[in-house]
Amino acid sequence: MQIAIDLAKSAWGKTHNNPMVGSLIVHQGAIISKGFHEKSGSHHAEINALKAFNETPDDTTLLYITLEPCSTTGRTGACTEAIIRSGIQKVVIGALDPNPNHAGRGISLLEEEGISVTFGVLEEQCRDLNLIFNHWIVHKKTFSALKVAMTLDGSLAASNGQSKWITSEEARSDVMTWRRLFPAILVTQKTIDQDNPRLTSRSSEAVFCPRRFVLNRSLKSLDQYMKYSVFSDEYKHKTTVVYGELASEEAVQKLKALEIDAWRIKESDHGIDMNDFFNRCAEENLCGIFIEAGAQFGTHLLEKKLVDYLYVYQAPKLLLDSDARALGTCRKTSHIDESLQMEGVIHKTFKEDHLVRGFIKKESL
Amino acid sequence: MQIAIDLAKSAWGKTHNNPMVGSLIVHQGAIISKGFHEKSGSHHAEINALKAFNETPDDTTLLYITLEPCSTTGRTGACTEAIIRSGIQKVVIGALDPNPNHAGRGISLLEEEGISVTFGVLEEQCRDLNLIFNHWIVHKKTFSALKVAMTLDGSLAASNGQSKWITSEEARSDVMTWRRLFPAILVTQKTIDQDNPRLTSRSSEAVFCPRRFVLNRSLKSLDQYMKYSVFSDEYKHKTTVVYGELASEEAVQKLKALEIDAWRIKESDHGIDMNDFFNRCAEENLCGIFIEAGAQFGTHLLEKKLVDYLYVYQAPKLLLDSDARALGTCRKTSHIDESLQMEGVIHKTFKEDHLVRGFIKKESL
Fold this sequence. Notes:
The structure is a homodimer.
Chain A: H1 2-8, E1 22-27, E2 30-36, H2 45-51, E3 62-67, H3 79-86, E4 90-95, H4 105-112, E5 116-119, H5 123-128, H6 131-139, E6 143-151, E7 155-157, H7 169-181, E8 184-188, H8 189-195, E9 201-202, E10 207-208, E11 211-215, H9 229-232, E12 239-244, H10 249-257, E13 261-265, E14 267-268, E15 271-272, H11 274-283, E16 288-292, H12 295-303, E17 309-315, E18 317-318, E19 325-326, E20 340-350, E21 353-360
Parallel strand pairs in A: 3-4, 4-5, 6-16, 6-17, 8-11, 8-16, 11-12, 12-13
Antiparallel strand pairs in A: 1-2, 1-3, 7-19, 9-10, 14-15, 17-21, 20-21
């Protein structure tokens, strides 16, 4: 199953709004066929594996799939039917269909045909492959993930805002991997002003540029836009400015003159209405967005539970400065149980740094 | 070597001021002899393994030791001599002698006799076995370790001081393991007032009570001492109050009347002079002390680099309260490089919680 998971990852970030899926066929003790889902509209993973399988199935033949096969005839035909037709009698499945209305249906259909099905093998890893899809397919909403980097004592920046670099190159390279996964990225104008980031995913293999959103409520800093990478590089057509409905008409005109794509979003009591923004993302079929935030915006997103998922990168260093930029408002807690909770937490270490990631429990805080 | 490490750990916390060491002999492909160092004054691990070895060494015979054998004749005779006498021709060593003046000498002596020596096998784990001893033997100073528990955003307690419980039972049980390792523990009177802890190490096997120090600079709360566990339980003779030289004579008399062991320590600009306290610990042959601190005392210890080692237990929850108790003073940093750095960092996860531990880099901050 681990090999099937790695196969699925061959299409890392390329399958939206479909899931990543890997499949392989073991016959007489050897892997003789492999398949993965390449992109939306292409064959499903198990179909690719079955196509490459030229033997006559026997008692030793096992089909592995990271995700429960679909039972509905979509663009590519139901996978359960193809499996049944193949004559394979043993199927091993990682994760169930994330849609509660479909979960288990593919398995039942196979079992009804007398096929032996084992499921839940490396289930957690198989499910983790599709953080974005699992959310999108159930809620039809954009999966929003917040990433912050901090010192071990919780500082996101020194007291003057300086934040380069808290984490090591290895940890920052992991951030690049997540940027490659998400179809869109969001930062605030403050981050653009401070760091002038490219917001691309750069690896030894290639450069990928996600759809880039810059939150600029009242359209500040427009005069300097041309010096910023996101508005002037070769991917500038992938940059969208997100501004509030209260931005001045003059600024809106100035922005228009710059020929930069822009979204006008409703305002709430706290600035731009993020739910309205996420809804617009969903309308435009963006299944996931990776938000890289500083202390202020990060706090807002967490406090109002506007994000579904959190990535916290930490370095084993302590700034020991109460005035440093940290998450938090002055809400006067009196019990640890007032904390925002996470669930489905996954830890990863990068030499001395580490990452804690997981879902934000919506009922907490 | 992993088996030898586990053997060494049979004496977890029982070997002070000696190291934990494990040893085994593999003969004709099987482990046929095991030994570990039980306590100061007992045989060294490799001597115990050699004693239990009744075969004639041949080409297949390998002696594993987690720590380089001693080359000086102490109470128990030099281990290098015993190894040479045994006729064993192949020795595998984990960590070198931590004393730079001795490191490698045991290996040289063996090699001079034609014995083949492999060293550095699971070196990091073998060295990590003896955090306390490695420090003590080189510096002749008490190894001081600070433990804090915090939320992912760096809160050690809610804004009213409430801190039960940040971490899970699994993480707290790991704290018990470290309490079992250190011969002494230190907390402030504030912690006693707030939580009335027992400061014992409780496991399914047994209860262990380390030497317990309570920092009470001006001897407050004496009236309530008899209701606190550390001053009234069956281990009360293991509790020592540490007070400052400026404590009132009246309070000192009151303390005397309570018949509680006490140390009078010099004062510095910041309260009790911790270096003076640590010196006194060293004089009394206490090789290591585990300090469980809240935000204020923890900050003091870190800021002044009074501790050698840091344990940070973290839970994946965010209090998001800027007024919560966190580490830090208002020192107005302007660069991340002003952080206190850690080195030799080790990560461990406990389901959703995790521990980051490592040495405080003395030249940083």
